[in-house]
Amino acid sequence: MTSLVFSAQQPEPINELYVFGDSLSDVGTVFRATGGMYPPNPTYFQGRYSNGRVWVEYLADKLHLSSKQTNNFACGGATTGSGGNSLVPGLLTQVQSFTQTHQQTNPHALYVLWAGANDYLQGVSRATVPVENVTEAIASLVGVGAKKILVANLPDLGQLPSTRTSTNSANLSTITQSHNQGLRRAIKQLNQQYPDLQIASLDANALYREAITNPAAFGFTNVISSCLSGRACSNPHQFLFWDGIHPTTAAHRILGEAGFSAIQDGGMVDSRPMLLK
């Protein structure tokens, strides 16, 4: 007789979500700071840099977390550093603000970091410092007790609608590759440094590449240009890009599901039963 039982090693459920990053994860930080002026509504959906919800919201759905269990510090325009201004704190500043007020944080929460694109789009030509900044941000969170971390790499910044025909396209593609390689090495080192840390990677680069190579598999018909060009297109769910830089909510949904798969593969969530004979 075969019975279905759950593994005794099933992890503690994730009961909170903390998000740090830029416009790809911002759910209204800049919108509130500018009194609802930016990003303009209704062109952009309720403070998101997209036409609907963004990937961390879809991820929260998969984790069965309410908006009260989600703490989002991501800020449109943020770089990885501690520079910027009070309106647009960088990734390190976001994390530093958090760790200063949370000397001991929730070990059963998931901490999400995604940043770096703005560094390179604003002219940073070497990946060294942005990768160091992301690594430092992760180490700071671990220092106050974070145990579960999800970090995303960068899509090919030379293949965005706003960059693909520019003279800087090839440079941006090269620096993206350099960033992602550096980030992969840094994550490996962090795993060695903190043996009880669970750190998962969202390979956004591979997802975008697959979508551009095989759009039909994702339900897309346009993966080159943006839906929003003067006015919005009539079929945004078939577009990878909402504007020249940011994905549509349809693409965000795919990213959120991939993020969930990454933490599942990393052993942070486990809904899969084991077969015992």
UniProtKB/TrEMBL annotation:
InterPro entries: GDSL, SGNH_hydro_sf. It comes from the Bacteria. GO terms for molecular function: hydrolase activity, acting on ester bonds. Keywords: Hydrolase. It holds the Pfam family Lipase_GDSL. Belongs to the 'GDSL' lipolytic enzyme family. This is SGNH/GDSL hydrolase family protein.
